[in-house]
Amino acid sequence: MLLNRLLNLEEDESVFLSEESMQDLLDLPVTAEIMETGLDADGLIEISNLGIALHLSEPAPIWLLLTDKYSDRKILQDHMEKWKGLPGRKAEASEKEFLLALTEYFSVSLMQELLCEECQINGAPFFVEERIERLASLVGPRTPQGSSILEICCGSGMATQALLRLGHRPRSMDSDRCDLCQSLKSDLMDPQGCFVLDARLLPRFFAPQSFQIVMGFMVGLIDDFNWPLWRDILLKASSLAKERVLFTTYTQKEAELIAKALGGTGWKGEVIDHRDPSGIYDQWAYYGQKLA
């Protein structure tokens, strides 16, 4: 596990995060409770400006990782005094390495059903091979090799397979943890490369223009009622792109709505007619490039 390496721990040493999801890293419900009730810790690893890991011996030896890096509630600093006397050391990690380790931790916990009371998902997700091939032909010419890519609303990862086959290693996310879990259990997604989150919260974890390209496949369905929600999602996701965005939709109207919204925020793009006889997936697309 990346967390073990980051903390310079042996692979067989147990490391747990206090929180159960990336969204909880913003609100810190469990961390706040721990701060109030206290912990009988006997060791400490401090990760400079990112968090701390406390060693607990009872009921079994574990390391408990606490971080308020992504929260507006900076509650760790207020309690550091109580742990200053513990035997400990420091570990160094970049913000990118730290977030990657957290991503892997949550993905593995999801696969191991540590975050669910009962799993109702069985078997591999259903993929349409023709869709994957069509997406590869759409994405390939518009996505330089080596590009850093964020894929939003990835679902069970069908479209992600097109990116993987083209040799890309996207960071893929969705708000539905069951969809992601199904793909993770089927070895179709990389635990370090996917996470569960409301896309509107992405800027809390990533700085503007953190990725060269942001993509989303079959975003929507978008209608007049939910357009304000989708507009917020797409604008916040696009703010993380440095060079390009690509979003596919079911209808021309959806693609044109996206084009209009992004056109007012520094993007120049085109609506692409990508229809095929089946008329189901990715019939239209918006491809935009960042204005200088």
Task: Outline the fold blueprint.
Blueprint: H1 2-6, E1 15-17, H2 24-27, H3 29-37, E2 41-47, E3 51-56, E4 62-66, E5 88-91, H4 95-111, H5 129-139, E6 149-152, H6 158-165, E7 171-174, H7 177-185, E8 194-196, E9 211-216, H8 227-238, E10 241-249, H9 252-263, E11 267-273, E12 284-290
Parallel strand pairs: 1-4, 2-5, 6-7, 6-9, 7-8, 9-10
Antiparallel strand pairs: 2-3, 3-4, 10-12, 11-12
Instruction: Give the helix tally.
Output: 9
Domain tally: 2
Residues in β-strands, percent: 15-25%
CATH topology of the largest domain: Rossmann fold
Rounded to the nearest angstrom, the radius of gyration is: 21 Å
Determine and state the CATH class of the largest domain. Alpha Beta
Uncertain parts = none
> What's the overall average pLDDT, rounded?
94
Distance between the termini: 40 Å
Task: Please name the fourth-level CATH homologous superfamily of the largest domain.
Answer: Vaccinia Virus protein VP39
By CATH, the architecture of the largest domain is named 3-Layer(aba) Sandwich
How many strands, which pairing sense, and closed or not: the largest β-sheet?
A: 7 strands, mixed
Task: State the share of residues found in helices, binned by percent.
Answer: 25-40%
Alpha-beta content class = alpha/beta
Order of helices and strands: HEHHEEEEHHEHEHEEHEHEE
Order of strands in the sheet with most strands? 8-7-6-9-10-12-11
Q: How many DSSP E strands?
A: 12
Label the overall shape: elongated
